[in-house]
Amino acid sequence: QHIACIFDLDGVLVDTAVYHYQAWKQLANSLGFDFTYAQNEQLKGVSRMRSLDMILKWGGIEKSEAEREALASLKNSWYVAMISKMTTDELLPGSLKILENLKAIGAKIALGSASKNSALILKRTGLTHFFDAIVDGNEVTTSKPDPEVFVKAAELLGATNKDCVVFEDALAGVQAAIAAGMYVVGVGETENLPGAQLVIKDLSEITIAELLALKNQETE
Ligand code: G16
Ligand code: MG
């Protein structure tokens, strides 16, 4: 099959947004201001340092480079403590099934995430063995919407960009995949993910047969 799939992690395969939210909220509160659920939504797919910069801006606080590094590691230590207790219960609907079905047809599978903690999350949720390639925040220098993360994933899979299907829940991620010339399946709400060729609520809403049909239609 001429299909390779690249999955975003947070918000597509697993639900870690709630932990990012708790850890950022704790950090904001320790600095004397609040952090809302709506603000957390805006940080989906955004790198750790950029997230911190946005939060400090919302709180009206300026910090030196060294202080920002320290705040980011503090948040990360809280976040890592939380994700260290994750279980397979935190897989989002349909993730396990689509990975199993893709494996069964011999499709190549990669991870394309902004997170520097992807290895731990995959391990805790039992997904590591599905991936032929893992590209995350440790390997990339430019974040989504730059296509680097997905281009690297395709290279590692030995796939051409146009044969790749990207599953993404963040607008920046959808834009990155489009910039790479890949087919994008948005995961979430249509109005939040303009540009995606198809939008589904979660991975349980698409079968491999449908995916292959859509891809073939596209390239005909
Ligand atoms: C994820 C999350 C973002 C988070 C980023 C960096 O991206 O959606 O909210 O800020 O990773 O995570 P970390 O602090 O663990 O390096 P993705 O691309 O997997 O959705
Ligand atoms: Mg995401």
From TrEMBL:
GO terms for molecular function: beta-phosphoglucomutase activity; magnesium ion binding. Binds 2 magnesium ions per subunit. Mg(2+) binds at residues 8, 10, 168-169. The record marks 113, 144 as: Important for catalytic activity and assists the phosphoryl transfer reaction to Asp8 by balancing charge and orienting the reacting groups. The keyword Magnesium applies. It catalyses: beta-D-glucose 1-phosphate = beta-D-glucose 6-phosphate. This is Beta-phosphoglucomutase. It comes from Pedobacter nyackensis.
